[in-house]
Amino acid sequence: MILNTIRDYDFSNKKALVRVDFNVPLKDGVVTDDTRIQAALPTISYLLEHGATVVVMSHFGRPKGKKNPEFSMAPIAKRFSELLGKQVILAKDVIGPEVALQVAGLKKGDVLLLENVRFYAEEETNDPEFSKNLASFGDVYVNDAFGTAHRAHASTEGVAHFLPSFAGFLIEKEVKFMAPLLENPDKPFVAIIGGSKVSSKISVLESLVRTCNTIVIGGGMAYTFLAVQGHSIGKSLVEEDYKETAASFLAKAKEKGVQVILPVDHLCGEEFKEDTAVVTIDSADIPQNLIGMDIGPKTVALIVAAVSQAKSVVWNGPMGVFEFNSFANGTLTVAKALAQSNATTVVGGGDSVAAINKFNLADKISHVSTGGGASLEFLEGQVLPGIKALEK
Ligand code: ADP
Ligand code: MG
C-alpha cells in the first residue's frame, strides 16, 4: 500500500484543507488532554513552513447533525492556537457564505479552524454536495485523522473526490507500521490478541493468522477457546455462539503451522470485582466456583519468551481485567516485554493503548496506534475508505 503523502506536493501559495482528529476530552470548557492536538502539529507546521494557508476541520463529540454550542470547536481552537504558537481563526460555521468570506480573506500562513463538521448530518451521510462545499475551501486536501479513517464521511472521504489528496504524517506512520504486518512482516511475527470478546476479535485473528508465526490468545476471549479444547473454565466469560468459530480458527492455525499460545494457568476470583481474593490456578482448568480474570505466571513466561524471539509483534487487547490492580499483572508484563523488545512493536486498540499509557511505556513501543476502531479494521485487512482515498 503506497500513499500520496504531503511530501509529494508543492504547497507554496496553496490553500490546504486538512482533516485532523481534534476529538479531545473537555471539562468545563477546557481541553483536559491535548495529545491529539499535539499529534497533528507536525503536519500543520510542515504545511505552514512550505508556504500553505491552512483550513483545518475535525469532528468533536456527537452533536448529531445539529449546531449545538456545547460541541463548538471554540475551546479547541484556543488550545490549538497556544500549542501552534500562532493565532487560529475560528470559522463562524462549517460551510456557507460567511465561512467562504472568511476563507477568501485568509493570507498566506493563516490558520482557520472550521466549526464542528458534525454540526451537519451531511458529514456522516457523506453527502456529495456537502463534500463539494468543504472542498471549495482548499486547493488540496490533506487527511491526518487516522482515528476516523474507517468511516466514509464527507470530511474523511467525500472531499477526496474533489481535490488532489495526500496523507499527513500521522496517517503515513500508521500505514508504514501496520501495512507490513499484513503483507510481509519481519519474522518471527508474534500477534498477541486479548480483550473481552471473541466476537470482536475473530476477524483480526483470522487476518493475522495468514502472516504470523505465533498467535497468543489472552483476556476474556481465551476461555471460549479453552472451553472448545475441553478445559473447564468455571464461571469465566464464554461466548457459546462463538465456540464453533473458535474451534475452526484453531483448526486453521494448526493447518497453517501457526503456533497458538493459550493460557496454561490463571489468576482467578470468586466475584468479578476489584477486591475479590486472588486465587492462582496452576492449570489450564478452572474450578467451578471461580472466574478467570488474568493470565497466570507460566502463561506470562510463555509470552515473554515468544516476544523475546520475535522480529515483529502486534498487540491488541488486554490479557486480563487490568482495570483491577490485582489482575493487571498479565497485561503489564506483556506491555513491558514489548517495551524491552528489539522487534518492531505495534500496539492498537483503545484499552491496550490505555494500558500502555497507564504504565508509561508508550515511548518504548515502535508504534502506538492513534485509532482504536480504525486500527482494528486495518489489521482485519479491511479497506479503510479514508486511506483508500489517499492511495497512489
Ligand atoms: P481493546 O480496546 O484494547 O481492543 P477490548 O475492548 O477488546 O480491548 O477489551 C478490553 C476489556 O477486556 C477490558 O475492559 C478488560 O477488563 C476486559 N477483559 C480482559 N480480560 C478479561 C477477563 N478475563 N474477563 C473479563 N473481561 C476481561
Ligand atoms: Mg476496548
UniProtKB/TrEMBL annotation:
<feature type="binding site">
    <location>
        <position position="118"/>
    </location>
    <ligand>
        <name>(2R)-3-phosphoglycerate</name>
    </ligand>
</feature>
<dbReference type="GO" id="GO:0005829">
    <property type="term" value="C:cytosol"/>
</dbReference>
<dbReference type="GO" id="GO:0005524">
    <property type="term" value="F:ATP binding"/>
</dbReference>
<keyword id="KW-0963">Cytoplasm</keyword>
<comment type="subunit">
    <text>Monomer.</text>
</comment>
<feature type="binding site">
    <location>
        <begin position="349"/>
        <end position="352"/>
    </location>
    <ligand>
        <name>ATP</name>
    </ligand>
</feature>
<keyword id="KW-0324">Glycolysis</keyword>
<comment type="pathway">
    <text>Carbohydrate degradation; glycolysis; pyruvate from D-glyceraldehyde 3-phosphate: step 2/5.</text>
</comment>
<keyword id="KW-0418">Kinase</keyword>
<dbReference type="GO" id="GO:0006096">
    <property type="term" value="P:glycolytic process"/>
</dbReference>
<protein>
    <recommendedName>
        <fullName>Phosphoglycerate kinase</fullName>
        <ecNumber>2.7.2.3</ecNumber>
    </recommendedName>
</protein>
<dbReference type="GO" id="GO:0043531">
    <property type="term" value="F:ADP binding"/>
</dbReference>
<keyword id="KW-0067">ATP-binding</keyword>
<comment type="similarity">
    <text>Belongs to the phosphoglycerate kinase family.</text>
</comment>
<dbReference type="InterPro" id="IPR015824">
    <property type="entry name" value="Phosphoglycerate_kinase_N"/>
</dbReference>
<feature type="binding site">
    <location>
        <position position="151"/>
    </location>
    <ligand>
        <name>substrate</name>
    </ligand>
</feature>
<dbReference type="GO" id="GO:0004618">
    <property type="term" value="F:phosphoglycerate kinase activity"/>
</dbReference>
<dbReference type="InterPro" id="IPR001576">
    <property type="entry name" value="Phosphoglycerate_kinase"/>
</dbReference>
<feature type="binding site">
    <location>
        <position position="36"/>
    </location>
    <ligand>
        <name>substrate</name>
    </ligand>
</feature>
<dbReference type="Pfam" id="PF00162">
    <property type="entry name" value="PGK"/>
</dbReference>
<feature type="binding site">
    <location>
        <begin position="21"/>
        <end position="23"/>
    </location>
    <ligand>
        <name>substrate</name>
    </ligand>
</feature>
<feature type="binding site">
    <location>
        <position position="201"/>
    </location>
    <ligand>
        <name>ATP</name>
    </ligand>
</feature>
<feature type="binding site">
    <location>
        <position position="36"/>
    </location>
    <ligand>
        <name>(2R)-3-phosphoglycerate</name>
    </ligand>
</feature>
<feature type="binding site">
    <location>
        <position position="323"/>
    </location>
    <ligand>
        <name>ATP</name>
    </ligand>
</feature>
<keyword id="KW-0547">Nucleotide-binding</keyword>
<feature type="binding site">
    <location>
        <position position="151"/>
    </location>
    <ligand>
        <name>(2R)-3-phosphoglycerate</name>
    </ligand>
</feature>
<feature type="binding site">
    <location>
        <position position="118"/>
    </location>
    <ligand>
        <name>substrate</name>
    </ligand>
</feature>
<feature type="binding site">
    <location>
        <begin position="59"/>
        <end position="62"/>
    </location>
    <ligand>
        <name>substrate</name>
    </ligand>
</feature>
<keyword id="KW-0808">Transferase</keyword>
<feature type="binding site">
    <location>
        <position position="292"/>
    </location>
    <ligand>
        <name>ATP</name>
    </ligand>
</feature>
<dbReference type="GO" id="GO:0006094">
    <property type="term" value="P:gluconeogenesis"/>
</dbReference>
<dbReference type="InterPro" id="IPR036043">
    <property type="entry name" value="Phosphoglycerate_kinase_sf"/>
</dbReference>
